[in-house]
Fold:
Amino acid sequence: MFVASLTGPLRRWVNRFALCCALPALALAQTPRFHFTPPKVEPVQGLAQRIHAGELHLTLKDFLSLVLANDTQVQILRLSMDSAQASVLGARSPFDPSFTASFNSTRSTSPQSSQTSGASTLSSLGQNTNLNFSQTLETGQQIRLSFGSSRNSNNSAFSTFNPSIGADFGLTFTQSLLRNRTNLQNRTGLLTAETQVLVTGDQTQTQVADQLVSAADQYWSTVQARDQITVSQQALDLAQKSYDRDQQSLKLGALAPGDIFSSQSQVAVDQTQLLQAQSNYRQQLDLLRRLIGADIDPAARTAALVLDDDPSATAPVPPELSVEDAVAAALRRRPEMDALSRQQLEDRFSLAQARDSLRPDLSLSGNYGSNGLAGNQVPVVTPLGTTIGGSTSGFGSALHQVFAFGSPTYGFSLNLNLPLRNSSAESQMANALVSQASHAYQVRNETQQITQDVRVADTQVRMAAAVVQSATTARDLAQKNVDAYQQKYQLGSITVFELLQAQVQLSNAQSTLLGAFTNYQIAEIAYQRATWTLLDHLGLNVVP
Structure:
């Protein structure tokens, strides 16, 4: 309605200006900027290329690399890095620029009670446009740019310009001189968020490494379950041979009918143990499938898992480093210590921010602006009979006057805020000091925990290596004992019960040796985790 009341050229200018203001606003409203790349739920990968002839062959390194790529828990842990990055994005909000635009039009008509109004009924139309830009710089200064234009018309006989077109431009900056002089209040949140990204990375490494250790333990437990089938099968074969021999002796009359039940019972026991070992192995394989995502991939779900590692392939050896050297190395490498060090840095940020908040607030502000005026200048006849005015100029003339800075406005101000007491800042400082002391205790506690982890892991791996040697000797002696008892049984110097006992002892010794080898591998993994050398040995990266 108000645009229709304007003159032709000015109406066209207002239409163009409104369109120019509206288009960016509409574009921003429909396509908002988003500075964060959302994480994707990645599909299971790395399985298809490892399946050959219906079999999925895995070594420990292959298995753990698949765990890193596909395990659901690992992927959930990694999302904490994305959350930390999003927090950095939020911490930058104090430095975000802001742009505002406004346009308003007002028509007013009112009867007048004074001749100085220039009309008995004063009718006026005012149209104003304002554009503002503001931002806080990272160095602490606050700046504000403003531009405004106006068009005013009325029926007053005393108006010099009717209609009048005005324009103005302004620049304002504010600098804190005491409190927040270096923009510490705003930068602390950003520094803390950026440091927290590193802390989260350290914590993620720790948690994912624990997942890998658990997965490696599961892998070796499955290998033990696989090899236990072989041990149970060997025990069954020995029991079956004894039973077959007893049946032959029974047919020849060399064995009493009641004596065959011992060997027959042992066959049944060993068959039961073999079935249990086979069932346990299948259950362990299902756990492995879930860890590598093979239960999701249809092709991998039906493929037979083949574990290519042999726990007895390498001879167990104790650690090369002494306990004290291993502890010192772990304290240098473990990400838990790095995370606590960075958290102490966050405490220093908070403490500096609290101390800064206790300072008086003194700020210096400066402003500079310029103005311009154009429109239809009403001719005025002076007392001397000279005519002044009668010219017409447009918005371009007003802009020229503004940026020629012929009519400037400038000034400065000092503002002091001196609180007699700042309880909020004192509370913030107290909390920062408490947090600083808390993290110092946490560093000490983590040092003790790492020392204990390394010492326990060192003891376990050395003990596991010694147990393997002892169990190997016991297995060899049990084998020799069975060989000797078989000869004695054939000569009739011992009973079938004694032979079966020797065979059971051999089976137990083989199971013990298998468990000793597996326990050594698990202890070695725990030692590498405690000294933070596990990933180096495997050539893996926890956080890609």
Summary: Confidence is low (pLDDT under 50) at residues 1-10, 12-31. Residues 97-136+141-179+361-418 form one domain.
